[in-house]
Predict the structure.
Amino acid sequence: MNKKAILLVIILVIAFVGIISFNHKRPVTIETLNAFISSDSISIQSENSGKIKVLPVKQSEKVQKGQVIAEIETSVKISKSVTTSNNSTSAKKTQQEYENAAIMYKDGIISQEEYDKYVKKLNKAQEEASQPKTRQEIVTTSKVTKVYSPIDGIVVLNNLKEGDTIKKEAILAKVNSSHKEVNAYFSPSNKENIKEGSAVDITVIKYPEKTFRGKIVDIAEIDKKGIPVKVTFDQDTSSLDFQNGDSVIVKIKQ
């Protein structure tokens, strides 16, 4: 073999070894399309039956913790004390009877004993008339209950509107937390390359032109879908229209 041939073989071997070495050291990108946006969702039940008086927020509107999302008006029956004077007609009648008896006693028509009975009857009637009567009445009134958002997030009003009636313990609304996470499933073959704290790139399908940064915060046991991985965003995403179930792509760079 001449020197040129030997030199060519050496060059090819070096090139081959270089390619193998380059491919071995090149970072491997692990990617999954089986991923979606997730956030806490809290259902809010109506404390009482009633009519929805006010809905200060609209469907899919952002709310803050402690913000009023509804006012419910409820009819309530209460017992009320009512004070009235005694029957004045009866007292007047007794007064007239006494006056007639006094005339008859003066004229000798009735005895002292009979006259004294009319006096006692008059005194009793006057005493009763001076004491007011109190009775209990059932009256119907209304009270308004304010419903507050328990967390920051997006409100879902369950297709309700002002004037609608709602039953006790019925779902008035749901509030999806503004704190978004990603649930992702990776192939079990990548188990050795998935670690908590690893940085990831997140592409939300509805925002294909933008890449979000995040990190792996939890890795669960392998199930039928693959390796369950929870990912959090590095930046605040509360201003973006992320909804539960939105599809995303997650990439882990090694």
